[in-house]
Specification:
Layout: H1 2-23, E1 34-38, E2 59-61, E3 67-68, E4 78-85, E5 89-97, E6 125-132, H2 135-138, E7 148-154, E8 158-164, E9 169-170, E10 176-182, E11 185-193, H3 194-204, E12 221-234, E13 239-247, E14 272-276, E15 284-297, E16 315-329, E17 338-342, E18 344-352, E19 358-366
Parallel strand pairs: 1-14
Antiparallel strand pairs: 2-4, 3-13, 4-5, 5-11, 6-7, 6-12, 7-8, 8-9, 10-11, 12-13, 12-14, 15-16, 16-17, 18-19
């Protein structure tokens, strides 16, 4: 009898172990976001996300690339992420779509204990966390976190920023952020200074990892993650609770474990790798073929100038090809180098030699 009870318990444990990942939504997760381009640019931080300001391509956020932080609740968050960078800032833009959005009213008091202030604010919170150039990971902080930049939306479409895990506190005066609430979603745009990020990397590593903004440049990689705190009112508890946490996790963590089985906000499990795009070229020059109209003298088969009945030389219009130079200069707007074009206009001048043979001479003039 005891053997049967033991076998029943053992089978139940094994069955629960197999079902839990399914209940938690593992069957929906397809894989990490992975490498995405982060172009050079300086989008306007005004809360209006547009396609013409230099943002990266839209990166969807959904159950296929995002895991639930705990429990057996399927991933419900959807939305998008865009990024850009320049020498001073990392720019992020995000839109979040959820069945229920809770505005923040102040600092976080939900859940209590050591995790109570992790997202900073007491409503829904969009967290962006990053490891520039993988310096923390390479230094062995594999099971730690990097600094969290926590964005909450308040009454009146006010976006406020809170920093946690190092130098905890509100930093809305340091991080410029704007956004708005819409029907069923909210969005934000933010500019996080590289100086602040670099100092936070040093502080969270107790000085073991040092980095400067000058190192964060074209061709380098910034590993990061989105962590979303979904807060909802619980009528039984008569207060807000953390309904779920969603994280953009890695398919396989840096230590070889499956991302779906890891603590998702550890450095080893970050699932986004920003590839920093090409810097604007200063003084680069390329050549472009163009055409311009000109005139030349009409000659007969022997090369003699043709005249009309009044003795005037006859001319005709011709199209001449010329080469112009296209120069590029740096810009801090729109993600691409501004371009200026020096246009050379070819003008052919007809002239008659003393022998009566017309010679066409083209001359380029730069404006």
């Amino acid at each position: 009898m005891m053997k049967r009870i033991f076998l029943l318990i053992l089978c139940s444990v094994m069955l629960c172990g197999m079902l839990l990942p399914v209940l938690a939504g593992e069957e929906d997760f397809k894989g990490e976001i992975g490498d995405i381009g982060c172009p050079w640019g300086a989008p306007a931080i005004d809360g209006n996300i547009t396609d013409t300001e230099g943002w990266s391509a839209v990166q969807p956020l959904n159950k296929e690339n995002t895991d639930g932080g705990w429990g057996a609740i399927p991933v419900e968050v959807e939305g998008s992420l865009r990024t850009a960078y320049d020498t001073e800032y990392l720019y992020i833009a995000a839109e979040i779509i959820l069945p229920e959005i809770s505005l923040s009213e102040g600092e976080d008091w939900i859940d209590g204990g050591e995790t109570g202030n992790m997202p900073g604010w007491d409503g829904d919170v969009f967290v962006f966390t990053l490891d520039p150039l993988n310096k923390l990971l390479d230094a062995g902080f594999i099971s730690d976190t990097s600094v969290w930049y926590c964005f909450g939306i308040f009454e009146g479409n006010v976006i406020r920023t809170y920093r946690t895990h190092a130098n905890d506190g509100e930093i809305s005066d340091i991080v410029s952020a704007k956004g708005k609430l819409t029907d069923g979603s909210w969005c934000l745009e933010a500019a996080i200074p590289w100086e602040t990020i670099c100092k936070d990397v040093s502080d969270i590593s107790y000085g073991d990892v040092e980095i400067t903004p000058e190192e964060i440049t074209e061709g380098r990689e910034v590993t990061c993650a989105m962590i979303y705190y979904d807060r909802r009112y619980d009528p039984e508890a008569t207060e807000r609770i953390t309904y779920h946490r969603y994280v953009t996790i890695a398919t396989t963590c840096a230590d070889g474990t499956e991302g779906i089985m890891a603590t998702p906000w550890m450095l080893k499990a970050y699932g986004i790798h920003l590839q920093l795009g090409e810097l604007p070229k200063e003084g680069g020059v390329t050549t472009v073929d163009t055409t311009a109209d000109a005139t030349e003298a009409v000659t007969d088969e022997k090369g003699n100038a043709v005249t009309d009945e009044k003795g005037n030389k006859v001319t005709q219009k011709v199209t001449a090809k010329t080469t112009t130079k296209k120069a590029t200069t740096g810009t801090a707007t729109g993600g691409n180098a501004a371009q200026t074009l020096d246009v050379g206009i070819a003008v052919a001048f007809g002239a008659l030699a003393a022998s009566g043979i017309g010679l066409a001479v083209s001359k380029k003039r730069r404006k």
